[in-house]
Amino acid sequence: MSPARRFPSPSPTTGLSRRRLLASLAALPVAGVTAGCGSGDVSADGTVTLDFQWWGSEDRNLATEKAVRLFERRHPKIRVATSYAGYDAYLQRLATQVAAGGGPDVMQMDVAYLRTYADRDVLADLAEPVFSTISRSRIPRLYQQTGVVDGTLVGIPTGVATTALFIDPALWRKAGVGIPKAGWTWDDLLTDIGPKLKRAVPGRAPLTDFGGYVECFHVWLVQHGKSLYAGDGSTGFTEADLLGFWQLMGRLRDKGVFTPPPVTASSLSGGAGDRALVRKLSTAEFQITSSGTSYWETYGEVTPIPFPTVSASAPPGMAAAASSSLCVRRTSPHRREAALLIDFLVNDPEAAEVLGVVRGLPPNQRNLDRLAPKLSGGDRVIERYVADVRGDLAPPLPPAPSGADEDKNEFRRVYQDIIFGASEVRAAAAEMWDKFHTSVPQG
């Protein structure tokens, strides 16, 4: 059994609306927090108390508590007050604390919210000398970039990830298509692999329709040399790009490669148990690798493979990603101690053994190399996949601007209008383009 099982990231339909979060932060001036609230206590004997908060499941919470206790034994003058909650409750509490001028010294941050907090000057610059004890030498540079906002390092990755198509290898072999290698194309899927799967596996669509996931649109954009967002948070594509992507999705639907609309809608709006692959209504579907292990529990053996691409020589489109980040409150009175805690959680070999993959694959490459032989099942398969595609990964998507959650939700809604015939694809692309520019201030 793999060490310390990983807790899946929030599903694409889960999470606190950025609009609600921003409402909670409304009292916070853009210039930043002026109050220094938080635990930040120093006892008479010089012991410092750090407040560390995160979200997670029981597995993650137990492993993190164990790692924190190990840290305290290493640093007897530092006490860590821990607090955790479910994802939505955690984000709401954090927003409320920060809006009131407080917050934890060290916090786990969803990368989707890095810019939201960084733009309000809540997060410390981790490149400042006081944080020099946080070693990044064994974190691949590609993943270090996941915590950079407008040139400032505000987060350290807790785990590394990317995107994949998770396929049922037995069914794909039964269809005679085997396991596609990097460089397989959209044309291969349309004219060869998709039709063969459709004939060989009646009752299942070859793939769960992923045209409603903005993450998959980003993969397609990278294949064409573009990006969902630019470095400044503005949109990195055109209306014509969006139209082209959705037209390709339409051809896949017309060929019967994708799931029918009712199944697609259920997958888009439901939880993990509503996914078409889990319900045995498709043979493959899109997922983030940090959440992929759940298939071994809810479905059975699956294999992650790269996305099809434009041509054999084109980039595959998958980007480096962090499962989450560790950040420090800018006004924390104990930034030196916060740096020690983050460095320990990310880089210490004993901490890596304790934490396992509860936050995804360890970002420290040496720790991952030591842990990998002990992984089993889905954890081991995903580790090998990420290692195999690492050399082809695109740089991380720039931190999402405020409004990006609304983009995700609207992207799904507008796409469902397309597949149910409520909107023509050109009109839908124009509508979604306008929404991108409404929800993204710089767009």
UniProtKB/TrEMBL annotation:
Leader peptide range in chain numbering: 1-35
Statement: the UniProt record of this protein carries the keyword Transmembrane helix: no
Top-level taxon: Bacteria
Family matches, as InterPro entries: Bact_solute-bd_prot1, SBP, TAT_signal
Residues annotated as transmembrane: none
Pfam entry (one): SBP_bac_8
Keywords of this entry: Signal
The name this protein goes by in its record: Carbohydrate ABC transporter substrate-binding protein
Classification of source organism: Bacteria, Bacillati, Actinomycetota, Actinomycetes, Kitasatosporales
